[in-house]
Design goal:
- By secondary structure, the chain is of the alpha+beta class.
- The chain has one domain (2-68).
- The protein has helices spanning 2-11, 25-41, 57-68; strands at residues 18-22, 47-51.
- Helix 2 (25-41) links the parallel strand 1 and strand 2.
- The longest helix has 17 residues, at 25-41.
Amino acid sequence: MRVFFARVDAALPARDDVLLVGDGEVVEHFADHLRSEDFVSGFTRRVELVKSGPITERQLLARIRGFAGSPALRVLPD
């Protein structure tokens, strides 16, 4: 698992924030891996974990938008 984490971590830009969505312990361990590697390297990217079961594409996009700081505008019908 460590080799897999290291490969995925190497593919991510070191300065980009990371949003992890999923359930189970693997996602938590990967978030911990990223945070510890950032601490050692002196990086200060944001690593956020959202525990979730199955979600729709729209729900995923809403979470990504919220993480990026631009949540979808909600307009109620007249």
